[in-house]
Each structure stands twice: as structure tokens, then as C-alpha cells.
Amino acid sequence: MSTILLLVMSNVFMTFAWYGHLEYGREWPLWKAILISWAIALIEYCLAVPANRLGYGEFSGFQLKIIQEVVTLLVFIGFATTFLKEKLAWNYLVAFVFLCVAVFFAFAFKTPATAA
């Protein structure tokens, strides 16, 4: 569970680093948006690296990446609708459902053991 929580927290920072300047820093010069984004991304890395270290073994590398992508999309849906004021269209929801099907397939069946 700590892996998932750390991934959620890291994705909140990542989303603000990558997309926050679209709403709040539109008037900033590009160099300033980059520097501020890098500063925010440093916090994201400080959460994502431990999340993956703690999670590896409980989850495979493939499973960690799939979890990461779903968490990224969930966080982004909240960010885009709240901060960017974008509407969540039906086709985006359908795409998300397909990603959830991918998660099912990633976790529903026993995978081969990882080579040591």
C-alpha cells in the first residue's frame, strides 16, 4: 500500500511540474517555467524512486509501470477537470476503461518468475 500512496503523491507533483504552468505560468518566460518545473519534479523523483524500490518484489517491473500509468491518468483527470477546467469527454472515459482492462490482464494471471 505504501507503494501506491507514494506513487499517487509523486504523480500529483509530476502533474503540476508538467502541466501546472499551462494555467498558472502562461505569462512566464519558458526558462522560468522549466526551472520551476524541474524544482517540482525533484520532489516527484524523491517520492517515485522509493515507491518503485519498495514495490519491486511485491510487484514486477511491468506491474509497477502499469500501476504508474493508471495512477498518472487518475491524477491527471482530477487536475485537468479542476485546474485546467477541461471537460472529461466520453471517449477519454472509454480509453480509461480500456486501460483498466489492461490492468486486469497484468494482475489476473500468474507471470513467470523473474530471473535472479
Structure description:
By secondary structure, the protein is mainly alpha-helical. 78% of the residues lie in helices and 0% in strands. The chain has 4 helices and no strands. It has helices spanning 2-24, 30-55, 61-82, 90-108. The mean pLDDT is 90.
What can be said about this structure in brief?
The chain is an all-alpha fold and 116 residues long.
What percent of the residues sit in helical stretches (DSSP H or I)?
over 70%
- Approximately how much beta-strand content do the residues carry? under 5%
SSE arrangement, N to C: HHHH
Q: Could you list the spans in which at least 5 consecutive residues all have pLDDT below 50?
A: none
Whole-number count of domains: 1
The number of helical runs is: 4
Which shape, going by the Cα principal axes?
flat
Helix-strand makeup class: mainly alpha
What gap, in angstroms, lies between the N and C termini? 25 Å
The largest sheet is: none
Please count the beta strands (DSSP E, at least 2 residues each): 0
Cα Rg? 16 Å
Average pLDDT rating: 90
Summary keywords:
116 residues, mainly alpha, 4 helices, 78% helix, flat
What's the layout of helices and strands?
Elements: H1 2-24, H2 30-55, H3 61-82, H4 90-108
